[in-house]
Prior knowledge:
Structural class: alpha+beta
Distance between the termini: 69 Å
Oligomer: single chain
Helix content: 40-55%
Number of helices: 16
Shape: flat
Strand content: 15-25%
Largest sheet: 6 strands, antiparallel
Amino acid sequence: MGLSKQGLPGLIRGSLPFKRFEQLSLRNKLLISFIFVSIIPILLAQTLSYYNSTVSMQKKINDLIHFNLVQTAKNLDTTLTSYEDLVIQIFSDENIIEQVKKLNSGSDVEQLLARVEIRRKFSIISLSKPGVRCISILAASGQVAWYDRVNNSGIQNIWSKYPDVTQTEVYRSALRSDSWVLTAPDSDRYRGKDYHYVNIALRLVDWNSYSDASLGVIVLSVDEAYLYNSCNRPFDDPNRDSSFNFVYDRRGRLIAFPLKQYLGRPLFRPGRISGAARDGLLARFIRRAGVFGERNLIINRFQDQKQGWTIVNAIDRDYLFKQMYWMQRLTILFGILTVLFSVLIITYVTSALTHSIKKIVAAMQSAREGELSVQVNLDTKDEIAMIGSHFNQMMARLQQLLEEVKVATGRQKEAEIRALAAQINPHFLYNMLDSINWMAIEKDEHAISRMIESLANILRYSTNDSSWEVSLREEIDWLQQYLFLQQNHFENSFESILRIEPAALDCRIYKLLLQPLVENAIVHGFKGYTAGGVMTICAGLSEGFLKITIQDNGRGIPAEILDAIDRELQEPCNFNGIGIRNVARRLRTYYGAAAGLSFESRPGAGTLVTLWIPAG
Length: 616
């Protein structure tokens, strides 16, 4: 019954240890509380920090490695593309095509001369790109014409081991494909040294005769070492030994690998294994091959969609996390030392703590009673002293704010008086313009009279509740008077055309929303024009919106300024154009995301501004 009435907190407060704890001094309470409360949270924080830092670093490393693999894939594609360009060069050489025809159907002498000519051309082409091991033509007749940069023999070549080259994988694969064919690495031995190469093959046709009949296959044999180096760090990179990349194809065969005896070897059957299981298989293969010994590895993969090859990155996990492990141990040691040091220092701090707190409480009591000039004077430099200092600053700031309120109240009254006086000025200006207008009429200066009348109307319209909504009819009437003044000011260097649908005239629009856009077109678009400028303003209803366009045939907007305008329209970015910035911000204020404003322009071809406003 006692537990149900008081609950667990009441039971704890009624226990003997808690009663004894309440009888202790503040210093002893803080010391005991610190000992019991600090050690467990520190250990827990260290454990969570270790876990979070490990997971976070693993994720960031995987993201970085994925990015590097994407770049590596691009490098590999660039390397292969450069070799493919050589094949295109051969494919488009009419002389080589004629020589291949002779290999297929010529006499023995013609075939011999054709091989010599092809060999001569291939010897020149092979010098244009490093890594080219051999360039070959496998003719449909079974004849082979080649140039081998390593084995420059006229008799033996990399195809000598095949009884019939038309039955080889590279030949048959190229005939079945209308594009490039890349085969797994092949090998050749010359003068006691093994050479490994990847074949890039393309079916050869007589494109001059528009015939699809195959003349043979062009094969470019590329040294595997060049492909491997394009996927890995430079030799002088200090981190080269901690990670490496290798490549396998769709069939799981190794294309590029540091240990050449494994090239062309299948790692697994396609489609039989995927995901984490494939990463585990790759890690076991690397350990079994002895590249990194028995180290823990992090495996990441990226498949190049163009070639169908997969680039794998293997990195030594212990090497990668070595510094982090060291920092974690250092942090744990530092935490333990901090706890011990804090236990020692807390005994000194708590002795002065009570005295400082009493001073601050007394000062707060005085401030509550209205004595705002009260200050706390503490000789210590600890956190309590900082609280006292902040209290002093707060009281000083409070006094300063009271003074500022008094000054602001006086200034507000002064501003109200000035506002009343400012209301007189527009009426005075209207009256003066009206007087000047009648004087111009009396002197038969009707053009001047019309300009003065338009200016007065513009001023009256602009200063009379400029933030209110008006009909589009009122805005267009005002805009016509504004255009009249601008045309006179710029000596009729441009003309204006208004095309307003009657249904749009009663739509509501905020005042002066179009004026900055029109002014920009006049001042900037027609800058330097003496005649020939045309501005067309159109308005109509479209799908529930009021669509307004302002188009000119002026100078246009430079690309960098157009980019700055686009950024301002997306999000305020302190664009220098005051008019455009004003329109964009007013649209955001009035309509939010419902309105739209866009600019289209080309230097020398004019500018089109489109404004979308909800018509409801």
